[in-house]
Description:
Helices cover 36% and strands 13% of the residues. By secondary structure, it is α/β, with parallel strands linked by helices. The strands form two sheets. The chain has a six-stranded parallel beta sheet. A two-stranded antiparallel sheet has the order 3-4. The model has no long low-confidence stretch (mean pLDDT 96). It starts with 5 loop residues before the first helix and ends with a helix. The chain has twelve helices and eight strands. Strand 3 and strand 4 form a beta hairpin. The chain is elongated. It comes from Oedothorax gibbosus. Residues 18-53, 68-96 form the EF-hand domain. One of its GO terms (biological process) is pyridine nucleotide biosynthetic process. Belongs to the isochorismatase family. Pfam families: EF-hand_5 (PF13202), EF-hand_8 (PF13833), Isochorismatase (PF00857).
Amino acid sequence: xxxxxxxxxxxxxxxxxxxxxxxxxxxxxxxxxxxxxxxxxxxxxxxxxxxxxxxxxxxxxxxxxxxxxxxxxxxxxxxxxxxxxxxxxxxxxxxxxxxxxxxxxxxxxxxxxxxxxxxxxxxxxxxxxxxxxxxxxxxxxxxxxxxxxxxxxxxxxxxxxxxxxxxxxxxxxxxxxxxxxxxxxxxxxxxxxxxxxxxxxxxxxxxxxxxxxxxxxxxxxxxxxxxxxxxxxxxxxxxxxxxxxxxxxxxxxxxxxxxxxxxxxxxxxxxxxxxxxxxxxxxxxxxxxxxxxxxxxxxxxxxxxxxxxxxxxxxxxxxxxxxxxxxxxxxxxxxxxxxxxxxxxxxxxxxxx
Length: 353
């Protein structure tokens, strides 16, 4: 494989890369001095070929990050990566990067957010929620995700977020907005317990209503999994994982774990709320997380940018839809996602010790 990208050639060959049977070939390729082990310099050569875009251009992966990867897998702390340690690296670090198990999560593409009571085109950013429908449909058609999930905002009629219900619960003394003056889009604090900060919205996505249905033009794949959130009257749930106070969670993380998903791609409505919080919580749960920017629409431009910044700072990725297929196929291997893979391996190592 001299002169060619080692990992690209592995993918092109179509061989089964699970397990560590290719680790010895990897050692032979990157062990430039032939001593049967990898130095930090030789590992930098490995990461240089591992983290490339679909055209073969290398992503920046600083030496200090390669050093962190090195010391995670140098379990005997001798300053070299031997074959046994490389076998562990292959299984826990390289395989998830080359052959990720992927899930597309389509967040809340429901009538009320497109044409109904909370159509986001009427929000400050002026973005039209309908625009995500053809983008997501095309994505599903062209990209072979291992699994597809759809989420529903699924509220009871007396839900705490509805402006129409503002008099049903007492305000906490810390609420900056008095109960008698509360209006739509205000943020208030309900008494609880515990005290709950809540943005007030028009009634939307009431269970079983037209507004709660997925848009009729959205492609629904066979064997999809559906996640319902915001089902409790007294607490909202932007994330498809947890409610806003993290008092309870949906079955999403368990469903992902059962399928051994490594990479989560998020899309839908709205970027700065349900999409963004789902992505942040996916990072917390240990998934390599990708926000598909042009498959989402949001409420407020400033909040959208803040949310994207949070994801990037957590070693998530924000990408355009035309980059997704090559990422799913392991041809576009992002350095930040790879670094996160190493950190997850380190966490797993610590929990085992």
